[in-house]
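Q: Joint fold for the lines below.
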Amino acid sequence: MTLDKRVTIKIPRHLYDKLKEMIKGTGFGSVNEFIVYVMRDIASGGRLDQETGLSKQEIDLIRKRLIALGYLSNGKEEENR
Amino acid sequence: MLIEPHGGRLVNRVLNETWRKKAIDNASKMAEIRIRDDTITDIENIAKGVFSPLEGFMGESDFENVLNRKSLSSGLPWTIPICLDVTKEEAERLEIGEDCVLADSKGTISAILHLEEKYYYVKKEMAEKVFLTADTKHPAVAKIENMGAVLLGGKIDLVNERFDPYRRYNLSPRETRVLFKEKGWRTVVAFQTRNPVHRAHEYIQKCALEIVDGLLLHPLVGETKSDDIPTDIRIKCYETIIRNYYNSGRTVFSVLPVNMRYAGPREAIFHSLVRKNYGCTHFIVGRDHAGVGNYYGTYDAHYIFDEFDPSAIGIQPLFFEHAFYCKKCNGMASAKTCPHPSEDHVFLSGTRVREMLRRGEIPPKEFTRPEVARVLIEGLKETEI
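A: Joint structure:
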């Protein structure tokens, strides 16, 4: 038996072709992989931060842990550039 | 913008609570494979994206490509095989296409393996190509000798994380990426070590920090050799030296839970790619990086980068030569910058330093910071190192 049971979802061919073009060179191996990635994100609530690739919810959780561990102060870090 | 992870995106194969419960419920119906501690370390690293773009244990095509071309079958650079071995008998009872439970020696579920491939491999070939020797005195070659005859390939999903005594310092690639972003660091240099930080390491790190925004002091705390300094002592040394001698606004200390392979030059590439996943833009490669015995040339870990397209590696290696304190220069230097003969340099072998520390003697302050030496003396009193 497999845990990873999948179902087929149909999307218009032209959309499929467009996505196929879009993912070239992005690291996604297939349109299927890309759609699952996007859908998972939507399901977890929110758009991905462009720099970290994480949702706002994920970033908030990580920030809390970093503050708790003393890596970040409560306020916004002083920029060290 | 932060540097992209290797392959373009950070892998996440940690099951969320809903799927984790489903996996545990279904586990009793699946075949179970008992795995070693070092394999569990690999699983956790795959799941958290440390080994991005790997999503599981390598199939035959990736394995062969890594051995022969130092890349995955997609063409992306990758130099160390990440594989799961089982005995022939174990492999025979597993069905391709099925899910298997990967459990520790006590039966606790670590992950689910979606078994896609079973294949044979030649141990001698793996040893010679990855470790450049078939000598079983090499710790990794000895380990290969004890591996099962069959490798399993397939994606994994992490169900349970092990207890981590260094959790407080174990930031995942997602966490370091958020941290660097919050700090406003665009360029970050990572320093790899499995030893306490002596003056030479400190000098190299600070030279590198001069040209970037931040330093990630990233010691390895996975499986190392039995004669390496124990991790808890090393961590006390890192805490001590950072507290006394580093700019805390520019330094992050976190641990890297990866097993040492002692693959020398190949491991230098591997360590670089892993640091890229953590969000680092630069990586320090010193002399005899990830070496053991005399299996690799002193600067082979530098030369191997010439075999790759720098844009495919993505992270910038910073090559450093042996550093030391020079009495004539009256400061830290390296063979590249110091014109004086070796008699003017303060140099102590690892063995000599251990002897001094065991006797309770503090090595010269030009070699190691006294605060660090005191931590080592205290720590080593309780070990046989």
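Q: Anything notable?
A: The longest helix of chain A spans residues 31-43. Residues 51-81 of chain A form one domain.
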